[in-house]
Amino acid sequence: MSDWVSQGEELTILDLLDRILTKGVYIWGDITISVADVDLVYLGLKVLLSSVEKADEMRQVYGDGPPVPRFPLEGG
User: Fold this and answer.
1) pLDDT tens-digit map of 23-71
2) What are residue 43's DSSP bridge partners?
3) In whole angstroms, what is the distance from residue 14 CA to residue 53 CA?
């Protein structure tokens, strides 16, 4: 975090979100819910948070297929 913000600079949520979407963030984790040492629910989590452009760029670089087609929004 010290690379992002100098000592006297404030970081707003909007700035943080912009930087996350520009670079992309990959979150990976596991959650197990258990009661009385009996596992009831296992949740595997893999999330990629990025802009559409960054996701297309990453997909092309890592060979995960062609870019996702984009359709115009209604009224725009």
Assistant:
1) 888 788 888 999 998 889 998 888 878 888 887 787 777 766 555 556 5
2) 31
3) 18
pTM for this entry = 0.45
Report whether 26 contacts 47 (CB < 8 A). yes
Q: Of 28, 22, 16, give the one whose Cα is nearest residue 57.
A: 22
Alpha carbon distances (Å) from 60 to 38, 44, 75: 43, 26, 30
Domain edges within the chain = 13-62
* 3-class DSSP string for 1-59: CCCCCCCCCCCCHHHHHHHHHHHCEEEEEEEEEEECCEEEEEEEEEEEECCHHHHHHHH
Structure tokens at 20: 């996350």
